[in-house]
Q: What sequence folds into this?
């Protein structure tokens, strides 16, 4: 099949859509990606990429077409300009792109505006659209826009309209199925739960480098929704003779505020900020980790997202300590791979950390428990097969008759 993928982010930016597209090519499909110019998360174009270079290339069998966009830089205003610029220039590109594809596949991160070029292509080509939703809108913008404001209502209106243009919507969490029905009035027959995946190469590796301290490691984007502010407060309550360190590997919009909090709570000797590192270097941080930490604010349905890092932590065989609600909390508890407390319960989080430090033997099997659960639910092959199943149905002449019978087993 010929598949046209639309996503604002692609290699060398670190998103799963790159792996998905390359796997689809390995399965015999022809894949073309309409994307932007890489500048996430720093807000500056990656070396070798700009409005004049690498606008059209082929990588690992995937044809990549890059629309112009204005880089993110810093601040809410520049972020909004970045969002709008990709939507505008990619929509212009959609008017001239070759329309010999069979299906359109929109991989929707933030913002939801990135789907508009896919909708334009749907109506220009008469082909069907599969949308895989990683970020819920308008909820994803509640951290910087009041949900009672007029602007928020406008975003909500357009979000509902965009979601309704999709023939099938895939979601990463079962908790989102009811959300789409009640919030956006999407027919439940057009909704599918398709879990995300992580790099399974971690499954057979040993990450147990000898070290003196007990090390807690966080890997990934450092934004306010990641709830690391609660971990600072929780670690400030820990009372123990055991030497421990907290390693923050990554950067993001909340990194400066987080560093200020560490100073405010007098934890400078406990927190180490390593900055951003490429995916290839994650192994060395897993090797020193006794437990991996993660959080997500529980203020809205966004708190029910299953962060990608959970699968990564489980594949690496690490005990997980999380302050999170919803499906991710359920997964950690049902798999017995660590400690999961409510997103806003700082006391319970502190007690969990204290217990891990005082009784490490209680958690010696958590890593293998996590790997066992991963093998059953989060393999990349399972995700790719699910995506292909949807695309094959949408490529049928009478797809509307078959969509209600789509079933994906996990």
A:
């Amino acid at each position: 099949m010929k598949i046209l993928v639309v996503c604002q982010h692609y290699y060398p930016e670190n998103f799963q859509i790159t792996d998905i597209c390359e796997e689809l090519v390995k399965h015999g499909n022809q894949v073309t990606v309409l994307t932007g110019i890489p500048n996430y998360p720093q807000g500056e174009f990656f070396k070798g990429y700009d409005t004049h270079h690498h606008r059209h290339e082929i990588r690992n069998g995937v044809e990549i077409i890059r629309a112009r966009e204005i880089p993110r830089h810093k601040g809410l205003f520049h972020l909004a300009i970045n969002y709008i610029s990709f939507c505008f220039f990619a929509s212009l590109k959609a008017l001239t792109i070759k329309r010999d594809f069979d299906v359109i596949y929109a991989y929707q991160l933030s913002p939801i505006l990135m789907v508009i070029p896919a909708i334009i292509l749907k109506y220009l080509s008469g082909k069907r659209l599969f949308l895989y939703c990683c970020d819920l809108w308008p909820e994803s913008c509640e951290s910087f826009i009041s949900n009672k404001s007029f602007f928020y209502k406008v975003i909500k209106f357009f979000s509902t309209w965009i979601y309704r243009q999709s023939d099938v919507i895939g979601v990463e969490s079962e908790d989102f199925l009811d959300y789409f029905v009640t919030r956006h009035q999407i027919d439940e027959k057009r909704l599918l739960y398709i879990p995300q995946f992580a790099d399974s190469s971690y499954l057979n590796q040993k990450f147990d480098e000898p070290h003196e301290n007990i090390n807690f490691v966080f890997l990934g984007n450092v934004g306010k929704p990641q709830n690391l502010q609660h971990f600072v407060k929780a670690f400030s309550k820990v009372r123990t003779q055991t030497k421990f360190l907290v390693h923050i590997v990554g950067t993001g919009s909340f990194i400066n505020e987080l560093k200020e909090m560490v100073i405010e709570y007098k934890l400078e000797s406990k927190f180490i900020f390593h900055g951003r590192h490429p995916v290839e270097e994650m192994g060395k941080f897993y090797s020193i980790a006794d437990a991996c930490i993660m959080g997500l604010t529980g203020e809205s349905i966004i708190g029910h997202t299953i962060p990608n890092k959970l699968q990564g932590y489980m594949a690496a065989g690490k005990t997980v300590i999380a302050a999170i609600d919803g499906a991710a909390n359920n997964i950690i508890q049902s798999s017995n791979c660590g400690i999961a407390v409510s997103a806003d319960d700082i006391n319970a989080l502190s007690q969990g950390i204290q217990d891990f430090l005082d009784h490490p033997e209680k958690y010696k099997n958590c890593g293998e428990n996590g790997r066992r659960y991963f093998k059953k639910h989060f393999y990349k092959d399972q995700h790719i097969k699910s995506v292909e199943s949807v695309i094959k149905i949408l490529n049928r002449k009478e797809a509307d008759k078959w969509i209600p019978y789509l079933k994906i087993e996990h």
The chain has 14 helices and 14 strands.
